[in-house]
Write a structure and sequence with these properties.
Oligomer: single chain
Order of helices and strands: HEEEHEHEHEHEHHHEHEHHEH
Strand order of the largest sheet: 1-4-5-6-7-8-9-10
Number of helices: 12
Shape: globular
Distance between the termini: 46 Å
Number of strands: 10
Strand content: 5-15%
Helix content: 25-40%
Bound molecules: ligand PBG
Length: 333
């Protein structure tokens, strides 16, 4: 080939104008694929989350109004996280099994008022325990696995009976998906979806969430490394996903999101099942901080981040930006 030969292939041809960029675009984002996490609270626990500007803890009437808006924008689902007063927290997290507790009342209220939107609830004890851990402690302070399962099972069944569409174990105890599936089947809750936090890492990016639910102070200098995964590991994520699927999970989640796109891709390639990604509180806080300083363009940065979850292999994205993203998607039509 002579020095002056023309390039035979010019990838830029397909980038020249929006019509052709649109035609060759491989992935897209739709509001129906988004899950909006919402903190729910009553009385003094209501209000703005300081480390998550723009995120507000809602009571049940406000939650219903929010769900109506989200449903109108086409957002698929909400994920509810309770914020309790310290007075309701105990060593054993007994409030988690209160049949008139905040989450049960919220599930019933949303399903009655906005039946079209999916309702997902977290299965874990951290909003309810004085020590801020997701499970029960033994005498040495270790989070015990099998005793915790007994509580998680009951919590999941109670939420399913209240009408939750999706139960979402976020505790990382071994065997919890199988036990929850078993108890749901025995109770004829055949269509309750289990979305498991399958590859959930012991991440520093959950800090603002722990502020939001008030578990940060309780956890103190402790961490969750004896049950959540080591950020250094990737094969272990596949093992966790394999176990959860074998135990009856319908959808598996990778969490956090942006620093873990490689895990999303490996899970999607290996198992070909519905995968969810969680853009967690710390990712939200980072983006908000940069946006507030004028260092990033809010809409462009957010829509890129969310699209990249889809490109990496996520079918579903949990993001505190779900409502705003749905608005932007509607405007773009
Ligand atoms: C608790 C739970 C956590 C998150 C979701 N469920 C925090 C944790 O494991 O400490 C984190 C969500 C976020 O950071 O946005 N089981």
């Amino acid at each position: 080939m002579s020095q002056h030969a023309f390039p035979r292939t010019r990838p830029r041809r397909l980038r020249r104008a929006e019509f052709i960029r649109g035609m060759v675009r491989e992935t897209a984002l739709d509001a129906s694929q988004l899950i909006q996490p919402i903190f729910i609270a009553e009385g003094e626990q209501k209000g703005q989350v300081s480390s998550m500007p723009g995120v507000v803890r809602l009571d049940i009437p406000e939650l219903i109004a929010e769900c109506q808006e989200l449903a109108a924008l086409g957002v698929g689902c909400v994920a509810l996280f309770p914020v309790l007063p310290q007075s309701l927290k105990t060593e054993d997290g007994a409030e988690a099994l209160n049949p008139d507790g905040l989450v049960v009342r919220a599930i019933k209220a949303v399903k009655a008022a906005v039946p079209a939107i999916g309702v997902m609830v977290d299965i874990a004890l951290d909003p309810y325990t004085t020590h801020g851990h997701d499970g029960l402690l033994d005498a040495s302070g270790y989070v015990t696995n099998d005793l915790t399962l007994e509580v998680l099972r009951k919590q999941a069944l109670m939420y399913a009976r209240a009408g939750a569409d999706i139960v979402s174990p976020s505790d990382m105890m071994d065997g919890r998906v199988g036990q929850i599936r078993e108890v749901l089947e025995r109770d004829s809750q055949h269509n309750t979806i289990i979305l498991s936090y399958a590859a959930k890492y012991a991440s520093s990016f959950y800090g603002p969430f722990r502020d939001a639910v008030g578990s940060a102070g309780n956890l103190g200098r402790g961490d969750k490394k004896t049950y959540q995964m080591d950020p250094a590991n990737t094969d272990e994520a596949l093992r966790e996903v394999e176990l959860d699927l074998a135990e009856g999970a319908d959808i598996v989640m990778v969490k956090p999101g942006m620093p873990y796109l490689d895990i999303i891709r490996r899970v999607k390639d290996r198992f070909g099942v519905p995968v969810a990604a969680y853009q967690v509180s710390g990712e939200y806080a980072m983006l908000r901080a940069a946006i507030a300083n004028g260092w990033l363009d809010e809409k462009k940065a957010l829509m890129e981040a969310l699209l990249c979850f889809r490109r990496a292999g996520a079918d579903i994205v949990l993001t505190y930006y779900a409502k705003q993203a749905a608005r932007w998607l509607a405007e773009a039509r």
